[in-house]
Amino acid sequence: MARTPLIAGNWKMHKTVSEAVALARAVAAAADKRSDREVMIAPPATALSAVSGAVRGSRLILAGQNVAWEKKGAFTGEIAPAMLSDCGCAMAIIGHSERRHIFGEDNAMINRRIKGAMAHGLIPILCVGETLDEREADQTMTVLEKQVRRGLAGINIVAGDKLLLAYEPVWAIGTGRTASSAQAQEVHGHIRDLLAQLFEKGIAAEIRILYGGSVKPDNAAELMARPDVDGALVGGAALEAESFAGIINF
Ligand code: PEP
Questions:
Q1: Atom 7 in ligand 1: residue holding the nearest Cα
Q2: Could you read off the pLDDT of 174-213 as tens digits, one per residue?
Q3: Assigned domain for 1 exists
Q4: Is 14 among the catalytic positions?
Q5: What is the pLDDT of residues 135-170, one digit of tens each?
Q6: Quick one: DSSP state of residue 126?
Q7: Would 171 be classed as within a structural domain?
Q8: Would residue 168 show up in a list of annotated catalytic residues for this protein?
Q9: What is the domain count for the chain?
Q10: Three-class DSSP category at 123
């Protein structure tokens, strides 16, 4: 089953509006040259509207870095799904390790966010990953299984392109330390088996599973060559057009 690779850039809390527009234009130019893959960026919310206008008509996909589960109301600091759509977003990153570990989001909250995104037509990217302590204690698969099962509890996926997962080992995010392609494949294969238990097997075969954690132009090709690695979620190397283009063109 051929899954179109997705190269996704998570800009986190970086870039003013003018910086974001300039970078997005450069990324859109790189994305437009590659019809064999999809390219997504998740700028900070403050820049989404301007970026959306600047890249309209390009192949570049926009995403929110998180999303609320309610439609509107007294939820200071949150962004509703329809607000992201209004800014041109098609996707939303949910459950990023920084949300889990710095801001205390748990699997139940992440599950609500995924349901909220899907109810409003946004495609969620559910991020999962183990800490170094958990890996060293041989808990990797147990932790990931819990994050996937609880994150997707009560959710039925009827088409494989309506959900993505991202495996991001916490010890590899922003550390310069990448999982080996064998380690990534082992986990991705396990996640796909799990998805086949949760949804139909054909659907599990269609769902893209991205790898994230210090992906750079020089390690992207080896990771992407693994059969269950369907793209990358990139932090640091997505903040400069040249390095991100190097990953887009892996
Ligand atoms: C991330 O934040 O999702 C990420 C993978 O960051 P980095 O590429 O910098 O490790």
A1: 235
A2: 898 889 999 999 999 999 999 999 999 999 999 999 999 9
A3: no
A4: no
A5: 999 999 999 999 999 999 999 998 999 999 999 999
A6: E
A7: yes
A8: yes
A9: 1
A10: strand
